[in-house]
Amino acid sequence: MKNILVTGGAGFIGSNFINYILNKRDDYFIVNLDKLTYAGNLENLKEVESKKNYTFIKGDIVNSELVNYIFEKYKIKYVINFAAESHVDRSILGSEIFFRTNVIGTNVLLEAAKRFNVERFLQISTDEVYGSLGPTGLFTEKTPVAPNSPYSASKASADMMVQSFNHTYGLPTLITRCSNNYGPLQFPEKLIPLMILNALKDKKLPVYGDGMNVRDWIYVIDHNKAVELVFENGKIGEVYNIGAGNEMPNIEIVKIILKNLNKSEELIQFVKDRPGHDKRYAIDSSKIQNDLKWKPEFNFESAIVNTIEWYLKNKKWWERIVSGEYQNYYNKQYSDRI
Prior knowledge:
Elements: E1 2-7, H1 12-22, E2 28-34, E3 54-58, H2 64-73, E4 78-81, H3 88-93, H4 96-115, E5 120-126, H5 150-169, E6 173-178, E7 180-182, H6 191-200, E8 205-208, E9 214-219, H7 220-233, E10 239-242, E11 247-249, H8 250-260, E12 268-271, H9 286-292, H10 300-313, H11 315-323, H12 325-333
Parallel strand pairs: 1-2, 1-4, 2-3, 4-5, 5-6, 6-10, 7-9, 8-12
Antiparallel strand pairs: 9-11
Helix pairs in contact: 1-7, 2-4, 4-5, 6-8
C-alpha cells in the first residue's frame, strides 16, 4: 500500500484525479488535505468518500504543524501537490495569497517530505511558468521559465524550490507542467464553464480583447492519466510537459460552446483585455509520449460535448457553487485540524 498525501484534492483537477485513481487502484491510500477555499468542494468526491483507502483532512498546506502531524500519523511516503491558488485574474487583483499558498505552502510540504524521507514528491505545475509564445513554436521542458502574471510567478517559484530540494538534499522530486484543463467539476470562474453557464442563462459571454489569445486544451482525464504515469514511472529530478495539441483561440472555444447549446453569437461581448495577457501557450509533450508512452485519448470535439452535457446534467452542483452554499456548509461541518 502506498500512503500518499494529495493536497488540493477537493479542487477541479485534484478531485478528478482522486476519483480516477481510487476507482482504478486499491494499492493507494490517499490522505486528501484541502483548505476548502471557494474552489474546493467535497461534493466532488462523493463517490470515493466511503472508501477505506481514503480520508479527508481540512487544513492549509502552510500550516507546518498540521502537515508534520499528517506525515507522522499516516506514515506518508509519497506526495502529489495539486494545492494552489490558480486563477490569473484573482492574482492580478491580489497576489499575496498566491505566494502564501503556492510558494510558502510548497516549501512547507518539501520540508516535511525531507524530514520524513518521502520516496516521491510530485509537483503539479502549469505551462504558464514559461511565459508567452509568439505565433510559432512550442514550450519544451528546456524552455526558460519566464512567468508574466503573479499566479505564474508563484508557480515558477514553487517549481524552482522543488528543483532546489532535489539538487541540494537529494529529495526525489518530479514536476509536471500541463496546458489548460477542461472537463467536469471545474469551478465556474474558468473560461469553459463560465461560457457554458452564461450561455445557458442567456447572459453575455465576456471575451478578453479580440479573443485571439491561444491556449492548448487538454481533457482533465487525459491529464490525470499522465500524472499517474509520471508518479509511477517518471525519472526523478525531471520535468514533464503534458499537452494534447489542441491549440485554439479563446473566441473559437466560445463559438463552439454557443453552437453546441444552439445559442446566438450575439451573446459574445468583447471586454477590455486583462493586464499582461499572455498571447499564446502551446506544449511540446513529446518527452512524456516517448519516455512514458503516454498519449491523449480524448479529442476536443467529443470531450467538449461531454463537458457541456455534464454541466447540463448537474445544474444543482453549479447552482450551489455559484451561491456559495457548499462553502458555507463545509465551513460549518469542518474546522481546520490542530
